[in-house]
Fold this sequence. Notes:
Blueprint: H1 2-23, E1 29-33, H2 37-49, E2 53-57, H3 60-69, E3 74-78, H4 86-94, E4 101-105, H5 110-118, E5 123-126, H6 131-149, E6 158-161, E7 164-167, E8 172-175, E9 178-179, H7 184-195, E10 201-202, H8 203-211, H9 219-234, E11 244-247, E12 251-254
Parallel strand pairs: 1-2, 1-3, 3-4, 4-5
Antiparallel strand pairs: 6-7, 7-8, 8-9, 10-12, 11-12
Helix pairs in contact: 2-6, 3-4, 5-9, 6-7, 7-9, 8-9
Amino acid sequence: MVREGIKKESFFCYNNLKILRKEGNHLPNILLVDDEQSIANLIEVYLKNENFTVYKCYNGTDALKYIETTPLDLAILDIMLPDVDGFTICQKIREHHTFPILMLTAKDAEIDQINGFALGADDYITKPFRPLELIARVKANLRRATSYNQPQKVTEEILNVRGLFLNQASHECLLNERPLNLTPTEFEILKILCENLGKVVSSEDLFQRVWKEKYYENASNTVMVHIRHIRAKMKDSAEHPKYIKTVWGVGYKIDE
């Protein structure tokens, strides 16, 4: 029965692969970096079972080469590597790319999560983890990035808030005519706040709408770090903000 189930699953995946190619859809390229070979090999199996193309590395040096030479759609980065750590790789990616970055962190290492978000990571998952949970996170981030990069039908294509322009069709953002290089996650957060001018959007609501997951205990920290990163790109003060204001114990808002 088990073997039969594997055969059916493989046939199903193969048919999906043919459909994707027939329709001309791009099969995502995933960069996977983890020095624990057994974990990297296991993740690779699950990713390939979803028809993803996987570029697997056991060290940061090889990962940086792929970043320079290979079109990528998402990166999975372990923080602890023997040469170049995951934080440095994340930072290097964000110098030129906006594709999603998912960090692998040690259990309960909250400071790693905050540092990763501060450098531009979109998501994280703690070790040990269930492979299916990781795959779910990968798919969620790819969906968000796809939505970010494709034109959509919107009621108001351009959002304009006191010199802050968000083009929802092209997913471009300008502040006083200066381009802001936002990640898909950051763009979505800013868009939601602009769509709710004068209203407080709770951390819980932001998390559920952007990450499309159930709100959990440390999710407010996830939102907070992304808000901090957006402010830094906008050169907006947290103490005397011109745009994103913190309403303590409630959430965030942008005044009209």
